[in-house]
Every structure is written in structure tokens, then in C-alpha cells.
């Protein structure tokens, strides 16, 4: 259920409540069958969610899950979990806004790929989950660079990233990645936003530009009244200046892109998926009827929509 922003705007600490775009973070201390390597836990970022996949269900018995640390271009440690089936090919999964590698959709897809013998890596962007760095409201292009650090890490380990998948903000990040780096030819955009100028007022209030110009930042608070995160003017402008239309026009025709979107998405309307379908050269669109932004009641429909597309890309490679 989405929280509406409060009408009170007294001073710098504007009492805006953040709607749940990310569905929830989970940094559980219990991760069965995980080999621990360079684990760093930040308890201040831990929060609970209702939906969580059980690792014990229908796993590939030959697979092993490993904690991996990747350094990005800013020397920050990015923490991830590799679902290693022994395959040389890897699918990298990117979470959305204020989320983490443990968001239930990321975990469910990783386990589903693992079951099919496909290795998958899910990781935390800087300032999220267990990774180092500070959270920033924008950072779309910088997160595309973080994804590149992950791709280079596995390429240097004699593995090959054959596909990248992102949910919500992560969907935009994988598209931006494809527009800049041109080295991954299977890209899956799960509920990404086409126009990044939209969706801000719902989170920050309709007068967000006026307030941030005056005060330099807006603090977004949770229901307990504590500051959840800060939106600076710089980070806001980073988002406003990120043009997904222009970026998508730079994606190579040889890059296969799949957009999956729920018809009942309450955060990012399904019309955004239709816009992506109009401009991306080599594009396939799949609408899941009745699904919301987090696919709460439609998790089982994601794998059949995504797996054949990944398989086809691996066969082509």
C-alpha cells in the first residue's frame, strides 16, 4: 500500500512519506548454502519484508551460493551473491530503488535460473543492502558504471556475462548500460520507467522543485518520522537530466531487449513499457495481466516470461 506524502512542509525536514516502490529490503542473517567470503553487514540498513523466497525449495543440488565482493570505479565494495551452477555464462540481476539483492523478485529469479543450470549474480548497488558507499536519489548512469565493474569482474575470472536484468530503477540501469557499453546482447527491463521526470511528485510532493531550490535538499521520512533518505538538489537533477528516450536510441540493433511489465503497475504505468517498445530497435514486449509493480501475486509468471529469452540469447552467443 502506498503512503501519500504529508501536506506539512515546515522547514528543511519536510515530512514526506516514501511510497513503497522497492517492495522492501531484506538483509537476513540466515542464508543457507552460502560460502562466506569478505562479508560486510551494515545493521543500520536492515529492514524486514513480508515476501521472501525459501532457498530450500527446488534448488539445483549441484549449485553453490557464494558471497562475492566486487570493487567499483570508486573503490567501493559491492556485495553480491553468486548462484553458481558451474556454467561459464552468468546472468546479472539488478535491484531497484532503495532495494537490495535480497528483494524477493531478485532471489526468486536467481533460484529459478539456478534450477535451470544457469548461474546468476545478484548484488547491491552502493548505499543499498550490504554494499559500501552512500545512497543517492539519482545515480542512474553511475549505477550503469557499477554494473560494468561487475561485468568486468566476471570476465576477468574467465566467466562470461551473457545477460543483464533489472527491476524498476534497475530496469533503467540495464538499458543505460546497453546504450553505453554495447558488450551485453541480452537485456531484460523489468518494470523500468520511460520518463524519469514522472513519479517524483508522488514521492517528494508537488512543490519539490521549489523546496529543493530553496533548501538544497528534501528529507524523506518513514512512518515513524525518522529520515529514510535525503534527496539533494544534485541527485534530483541527475535524475531529471537522465533521458531514457535518447539512451534507448543508442542501443545497438544486435542487442536483444525484453521489457516485462505488469498491467496493474501502480508505481510505473504500463504505458511506459509501450513507449520502450516504440523506440528500442530489437525489442520484445511482454505484459503480465493483473501484475503490480512488485509482481506480488504474479511471481510464478516471471520465470516463464524471462527464461526462454535468456536461453535464446545464450544459444546465439
Automatic annotation (TrEMBL):
InterPro entries noted in UniProt: AB_hydrolase_fold, Hydrolase_4
Segments forming domain Serine aminopeptidase S33: 89-200
Name of the protein in question: Serine aminopeptidase S33 domain-containing protein
SUPFAM superfamilies the record matches: alpha/beta-Hydrolases
Species per Swiss-Prot/TrEMBL record: Datura stramonium (Jimsonweed)
Amino acid at each position: 500500500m502506498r503512503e501519500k506524502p504529508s501536506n506539512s512542509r515546515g522547514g528543511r525536514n519536510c515530512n514526506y512519506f516514501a511510497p513503497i516502490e522497492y517492495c522492501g529490503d531484506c538483509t537476513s542473517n540466515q542464508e543457507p548454502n552460502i560460502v562466506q567470503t569478505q562479508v560486510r553487514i551494515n545493521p543500520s540498513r536492515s529492514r524486514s519484508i513480508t515476501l521472501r523466497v525459501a532457498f530450500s525449495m527446488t534448488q539445483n543440488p549441484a549449485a553453490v551460493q557464494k558471497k562475492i565482493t566486487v570493487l567499483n570505479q570508486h573503490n567501493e565494495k559491492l556485495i553480491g551473491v553468486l548462484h553458481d551452477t558451474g556454467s561459464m555464462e552468468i546472468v546479472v540481476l539488478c535491484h531497484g530503488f532503495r532495494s537490495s539483492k535480497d528483494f524477493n523478485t531478485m532471489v526468486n529469479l536467481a533460484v529459478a535460473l539456478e534450477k535451470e543450470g544457469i548461474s546468476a549474480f545478484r548484488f547491491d548497488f552502493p548505499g543499498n543492502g550490504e554494499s559500501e558507499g552512500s545512497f543517492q536519489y539519482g545515480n542512474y548512469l553511475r549505477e550503469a558504471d557499477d554494473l560494468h565493474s561487475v561485468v568486468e569482474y566476471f570476465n576477468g575470472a574467465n566467466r562470461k556475462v551473457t545477460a543483464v536484468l533489472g527491476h524498476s530503477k534497475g530496469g533503467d540501469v540495464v538499458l543505460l548500460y546497453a546504450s553505453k557499453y554495447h558488450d551485453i546482447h541480452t537485456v531484460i527491463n523489468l518494470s523500468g520507467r520511460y520518463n524519469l521526470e514522472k513519479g517524483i511528485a508522488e514521492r517528494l510532493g508537488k512543490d519539490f522543485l521549489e523546496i529543493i531550490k530553496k533548501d538544497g535538499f528534501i528529507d524523506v521520512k518513514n512512518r515513524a518520522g525518522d529520515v529514510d533518505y535525503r534527496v539533494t538538489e544534485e541527485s534530483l537533477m541527475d535524475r531529471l537530466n537522465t533521458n531514457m528516450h535518447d539512451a534507448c536510441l543508442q542501443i545497438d540493433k544486435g542487442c536483444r531487449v525484453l521489457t516485462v511489465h505488469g498491467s496493474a503497475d501502480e508505481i510505473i504505468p504500463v504505458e511506459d513499457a509501450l513507449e520502450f517498445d516504440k523506440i528500442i530497435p530489437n525489442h520484445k514486449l511482454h505484459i503480465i495481466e493483473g501484475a503490480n509493480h512488485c509482481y506480488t501475486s504474479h511471481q510464478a509468471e516471471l520465470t516463464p516470461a524471462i527464461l526462454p529469452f535468456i536461453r535464446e540469447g545464450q544459444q546465439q552467443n
